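The records we work with from here on pair a chain with its fold. A complete example follows; check for yourself that the lines match position by position.
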Amino acid sequence: IRDEGTMASLFTFGETMIRFAPLEDEPPVQRPSGALNYLRSIGGDELNVAIAMSLLGRKTKYTTILPSGPLGKLVSDSAIQNGVEIEDIIYKSDADIGTFYVLPRDKTVHYQRRNSAWAQQEPDCFDWERMLRSMDNPWMHVTGITPATGKIPAQNWTSAILQALKMGVPISMDFNHRKQLTTIEHLWNLTTPHLHHMKLIIFAKDNLIPICRMESLGNFSEPTEENDPIWSEMIGAIYKKFNGPRIACCFKTRDVNGIQKRWSVIADSQGIHTTYDTPTYHIPKDECGGGSAWAAGFLDSIFQVETAGNSKTAGRRADLLAGLCQEIVGDHSTVTRQELTRAEENSHGKEYRVGLENFQVENQVENQVEETLEFLKRAKVIAIIRGKSDCDTIVSRYFQVET
């Protein structure tokens, strides 16, 4: 069985979609014909990971199902231009490509994928054994998005995992729950039978409490501090439950200036590791693509002999690649090996600021407390008014009492 620390080549698969995100605020009154400037980009977590790793010099192969015609070619050309092998992609005529629209006002996205080529896939349409045997030292990376896109995609996703296990191919998974597709309970039921076979499982912070409750790992409540030890306890509990795969989780906070702070927590056989003391700061130019780049950075590190067993080093590389990736608009990373190496060299043992060299990174909570205390100090007299009536009535009553 191939393992970490080899010159592995990445194999992955899933749905690729076209994203439309507005470049301007939607006016209060709709313009004639609903005209609005949009950014069009190509996105899909699995393809994003393949492209990010290809740009770091790794061999990558990706497969999916695309419509014949210009929109399918748009996706395949993007993969080819970034060095990803795609000869096993299936093309369907009379099919659409999935799209999704960013809706800032509603703080959500809207999917149009029911009639996509991917949605029309048939059982056993992929020859997993042939594709894996065509690669040198393959490593399969999957996500929880694919089995959530439908019954047949879930069946084919399961077949891919079983074939990889049969051939001794290592597998990693980004759980990547999307509430627009399914509930976390349903996705957990789909993926749980395979998790103990994985080498790496990536979770989002919001996944931890529901998973711990579903697995009866403890009655954890939402921590109030960003570095609360409860986060590590939950990640450690999930690691012990599955007794094998590394369990990783990405954390992000954002201050009043829009500066995002990134760090990671990873559990493995050697304990709990965190990059909290060496965070990455950046201002994302795009909200998409960071998670995919994080996965690519972590995998790249454990594919390397020198860093394969060091989860903290892998987490740091993942943090940096995610921050660097979001310096541009679009889902796909454009970060080269040289750029990533330079960031690692410049950030050894300390925090790293992506594009923020001359910008003061602030601790939002600490500043707010200091500002509030200073205000109260200047006020000299503090009045605390409590009541159940409306605000005007309470204030009026207060002045009556004072006078």
Notes: The chain has a mean pLDDT of 89. DSSP finds twelve helices and 16 strands in the chain.
